[in-house]
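Interim report to the steering committee. The following record documents the input for DNA replication complex GINS protein PSF1 (147 residues).
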Amino acid sequence: SEAKSGRTELIFLIRFRHCCLLRNQRCILAYLYDRLLRIRALRWEYGSVLPNTIQFHMSAEEVEWFNQYKKSLATYMRSVGGEEGLDLTQDIKPPKSLYIEVRCLRDYGEFEIDDGTTVLLKKNSQHFLPRWKCEQLIRQGVLEHIL
């Protein structure tokens, strides 16, 4: 009101304050957008269930956004690929071979392959398994790909 009444020296201060507020708003929005991109990447890396150590550092709104993204992605994957759907999270990188050699890092129990064969995954055991079947376990830290 004083600037409108004739104190023109305050106009520069008002403009400066407004520019500072706009800059802070842009920085906050960029930070929040970056967090959402990282949360989206967590869905592709860890699957539909996040470890508690990661979920502990997320706000309630971020957990809700993660759950909505997870449901939206699951709905889309069911809609493509016929009856069973298409799991887009399986092959993050194009495979060089269909079977890979893996080492079990911790006891997991029995693991069934599509042909009906069951494999007992015990700590330090090595197996030759289909890549697409064990890629999720590699990301979870149960198996290690032996090069």
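The chain has two domains: 1-79, 99-145. The committee is asked to note this result when reviewing the revised timeline.
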